């Protein structure tokens, strides 16, 4: 009996590892419920003050960021808008320039990002990129080995150890990953940029606006003398979103290929953004 269980375990482990390089396998084998389960569980842990983050309760600002998200969600290219909530939660941390979308469409936006970004279209570009991470199930794919191992371990250990101990072991081996610091692979980033660009095309915003953010990052880095300090706000962003010249060039290529005309300054909604941010968020605390 035990031998059979152990053999089964190794079979499951082998299958689990094969998930790692086959994103399509996840799309077939993992129901969307897994994404929703992971996202909801993570959302609850954030609301309860775990993960070293603080939810920023500011309904007006949250509604404003949600309204930008809702404009992106009108895109026909977004497949899971009825399945995933695509709900925005603000996180109070002026020193973190980042946004994250957990599986199942739970979007987290740091106040540091809202201060750093200069216009509505650029924030929309970043949100579209984040939505693409959830749509393409990047975190689920990245965690697929752990997810498969988790269930594999649970099933196997319940044979070997009995269900109570197995539950305990499965919890230990469980998905304790902090999704806020889960780094994306380069190919996931490329895909999120590509799909984010597609979503942006049906909005009132300039679809290439995310480049403004990339350029501001470069200026900021030069000003800082290209120091690599992981405590700096942008390094926190860069640790989850690898960035280089190539990503900027790719965005330019997309704009050219889609024959997007040069932007009209009005399509950035700079003034509206500035007035809303200063009204709802105020100045950044030094
Ligand atoms: Zn990303």
TrEMBL record:
Binds 1 zinc ion per subunit. GO terms for biological process: proteolysis involved in protein catabolic process. Residues 62-250 form the Peptidase M48 domain. It comes from the Bacteria. One of its GO terms (molecular function) is metalloendopeptidase activity. Gene3D superfamilies: Metalloproteases ('zincins'), catalytic domain. Its cofactor is Zn(2+). The keyword Membrane applies. PANTHER family: METALLOENDOPEPTIDASE OMA1 (PTHR22726), METALLOENDOPEPTIDASE OMA1, MITOCHONDRIAL (PTHR22726:SF1). This is Peptidase M48.
């Amino acid at each position: 009996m035990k031998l059979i269980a152990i053999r089964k375990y190794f079979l499951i482990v082998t299958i689990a590892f094969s998930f790692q390089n086959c994103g399509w396998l996840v799309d077939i084998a993992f129901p969307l419920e897994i994404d929703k389960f992971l996202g909801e569980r993570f959302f609850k842990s954030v609301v309860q003050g775990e993960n070293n983050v603080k939810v920023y309760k500011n309904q007006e600002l949250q509604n404003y960021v949600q309204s930008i998200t809702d404009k992106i969600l009108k895109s026909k290219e977004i497949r899971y808008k009825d399945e995933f909530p695509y709900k925005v939660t603000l996180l109070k941390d002026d020193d973190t320039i980042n946004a994250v979308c957990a599986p199942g469409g739970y979007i987290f936006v740091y106040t540091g990002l809202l201060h750093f970004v200069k216009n509505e279209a650029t924030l929309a570009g970043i949100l579209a990129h984040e939505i693409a991470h959830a749509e393409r199930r990047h975190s689920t794919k990245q965690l697929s080995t752990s997810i498969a191992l988790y269930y594999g371990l649970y099933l196997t250990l319940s044979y070997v150890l009995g269900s109570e101990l197995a539950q305990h072991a499965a919890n230990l081996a469980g998905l304790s990953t902090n999704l806020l610091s889960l780094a994306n692979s380069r190919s996931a980033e490329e895909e999120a940029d590509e799909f984010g660009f597609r979503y942006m095309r049906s909005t009132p915003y300039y679809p290439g606006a995310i480049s403004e953010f990339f350029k501001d990052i470069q200026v900021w880095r030069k000003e800082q003398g290209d120091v690599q300090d992981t405590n700096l706000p942008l390094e926190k962003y860069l640790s989850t979103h690898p960035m280089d010249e190539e990503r900027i060039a790719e965005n330019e290529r997309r704009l050219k290929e889609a024959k997007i005309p040069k932007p009209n300054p009005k399509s950035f909604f700079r003034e509206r953004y500035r007035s809303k941010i200063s009204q709802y968020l105020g100045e950044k605390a030094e």
